[in-house]
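Summary for the steering committee. The consortium agreed at its last meeting that each partner would contribute one worked example illustrating the joint modelling workflow. Our contribution is presented below. We chose a case with several input lines so that the handling of multiple components could be demonstrated. No manual editing was applied between input and output; the record is shown as generated.
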Amino acid sequence: MTAVLTPTVASIDPGLSEAAGSVGKAVTKRLVQAGLMVVVSLIVLIFLWWAGLKLFGIDPLVGKTPADVWNYFFNAHPKLGVRPQSMSPAQARSEALHGLQTTLADAGLGFFVGLFVSAVIASLFVLFQPFEFAFMPVALLLRSVPLVAMAPLILLIFGHTKTANTLVGTIVVLFPALINMVLGLRSAPPEAIDVIRVNGGGKWMTLLRVQIPSALPNFFAAVRISVPGAMVGAMLAESISGFDGFGGLISTAHGLGHSTEVWALAFIGVVVSIVLYAVVTVIESAVLAAWGPNAGRR
Amino acid sequence: MTEEEKIAVAHREISRRSLLRGGLGLGAIAIAGPLLAACSSSGGSGSSKSSSTTPTSSSPAGSSSAAGTVAPGTYGDIAVQLSWIKNIEFAGEFFADSKGYYTAAGFKSVNLVANVGGATDIDQSVALGKTLVGLSAPDSTARHITDNGSKLKIIASTYQKNPFCILSIAEHKPIRTPADLKGKRIAIQPGPNQGIFAGFLKANGLKASDMTIVSAGFTPDELIAGKQDGYMAYLTNEPFLVSAAKLTPVTLGFADNGLPLTAETYCVLQDTIDKKRDLLKAFLVAEIKGWTDAIASPSESATLAVTNYGKDQKLSIPEQTQEATAQNDLIVSADTKTNGILTLTDALQANIVKAIAAEGITITGDELFDMSLINEVYKEHPELIG
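What follows is the complete predicted structure of the assembly.
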C-alpha cells in the first residue's frame, strides 16, 4: 500500500512549487475570456433589446431604446419622455450611482451570508448524515415557495430593515449553493478519502483535506448562480421595503411613469450582474489552479 | 343616538329627493330627446365629427348628440381604468353599470378595470390606449403630460377635496400637525403618492430627511401593528380599518394643510376628446346619474361593492357604508350644488395647478383641464344638477 502511495504524494510536491506559474497562466487566460464574455454579452443584450422592441412593436411610451437610456444619462436636452424636465443628466447619474451602491451592499450581504450559511450546512450534511434528512425539507420549502410571495412576509416579520433585505438575498442564494456544495463534497474521490483514513485521519481531516478541495468546482458553480440571484433578491426586497437601491428606484420610477429610468436601471442591474459573474470566473480559475482537485496538473 | 337618527333621516330625505329628481329627469330626457335629435343636423362640429366615426351613423337619430337618445350599443365597448380595488370609491360606476345608465347612454358594455395591488399606472394605461378613461389624480396626469409628452386631459373630477391624509393611531404615536411628522416612521406607497407627499412636505416647510420614509404595503397592517407611525391614506378608507382594529385613528388631512389637490379625476386622451366627444359626454351623463345614486345611498353603495363588484376583496358592509358616507363630503360641495357633481370650478383648477407646482411640475390649467364636455352635459341636461 505505502509503495503505491509514495509516488502520488511525490507528484503533488512538484505541482505545488509550480503552482504560482500555472495560477498566473490560468488567471490571464480567464481574464481575457471574461473580458470577451462581457463585451459579447453586452452586444447581444443590446441587440436583443433593440430587436425585441421592434419585433413586438412596443409603444415608445413604455418601450425605451438603448439610445434613450444613453440620453437619459448623458444628453442635456433629450427629447420628451426620456427624462423628467426637473432632472439634469448629472442628477440622473448620481441617483443611479447612489442606488447601485445600496443595491450592491444589500446584494453583497445576502450573497456572503447565503454562501456562508450554505457552506456550513453542507459541511454538517456530510459530517452528520441525519442532519441532511432534518434540514433538507426546510431548504426545499424555502426554494419552492416563490420568493415574490415570501418576501413580503419576511418584511412583515422583520420590518423594513437591512436584516430583512439580507434574509431575502440569503434565501435566494441558499438552496442552489447548498445543493451544489453537497454534491461537490460527496464527489471526493474515495481513494483519497481512504488515504486519510488509513493514515488515521478522522471526519474533519477528510473534510478539510479532501472533500473541500474536491468541492471547489461545485462551490464556484454555486457562486456563479448566486451572483445574479443575490442581485435579484436584493432588488426585490428593496422594491417592497423602501425607496432606496435599484429596487426602490425602479418601483418609484414605474409609479411615476418614468419609463426610461426603469429601463436604464434595469440595464445597469443586468450589466453589473454580468460583470460580477465575469469577476467570479476569474477568481474561480485562480483558486482552482491553486487548490482545486486538478491543481498543478497543467 | 340622536346624531345617527339625524343622519339616517337626512339620507332618507336625500334618497326621496333623488327619486323625485330621477323621475323628473327621465321625463325631461323623454321630452328633450326627439327635440334635440331634430336639431342635431345643425349641431356643432363636435357632433358632426363623431357621426362620421360612429359605426351606426346610418340612422340619423342614432348619431345625434349625446343629449339625445342614441341607438343601443352605438358607442360599443369601452374600458375604464379604476385607481384602486373595486370598493365604494367607485360606487358611482357600480350604479351606472348595474342600473343600466351606461347602456342607456349608448354603450354596449363598460369594463371597469380594477387596480389590484396599486401596480397599474392609470395615466399610462390611458395614454397607451389600453383603457379609454382613467380615474387618476391631477398631479399624476400632469406629470405624464410634462415628462412623457402624453396628450392627456382631465375632463371631470369625482372628488372636490384632496382625499389624502397621514393616518396615525392615538394609542401609539399620534400625528396631529405637520410638525408632528418629525422623527416619525411614515409609510408611503411607491409611485404618484410619493410625489403628492413631497408636495405636502414642501407646502408645510418640511423635508423628507426630517422623518424616516418607508414603502407602504397594500394595507395599514404594519401601522396597526405599531411598526409604522404614519401611513399615507385616503380619509375615506383606511381610518375605518384602524377603527375596525379597535384603535383610534388620527388623521392629518392634506386638503386642510396646504395641498388642495383633488383626486379620482377622469383622464382621457386629447384624441378621444377630438374624435369621440359625444361618446365621452354620454359617458359623463351615465357617470353623473350613477354618482347621484351613490351619494343618495351609502348603504346601497356598500352593498354593491361588497356583494357584487368587489366580492373577491372580502369587504365588510358596515365599514364600506362608513366609507361611502365619509366619501360624500369629498364629492359634494357648495360648488357642486350649483354646478353639478364631477365639475371643477376655475378657482379649484387654479388651486390644483398651484399645488402641483409645489411638487415641481409646471403646467397651466388649460394644458391640464378641459371642462367643456361636462359643462355642455349640464347645459343640455340641467335636470342632472342636484
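Chain A has a mean pLDDT of 85. The longest helix of chain A spans residues 2-55.
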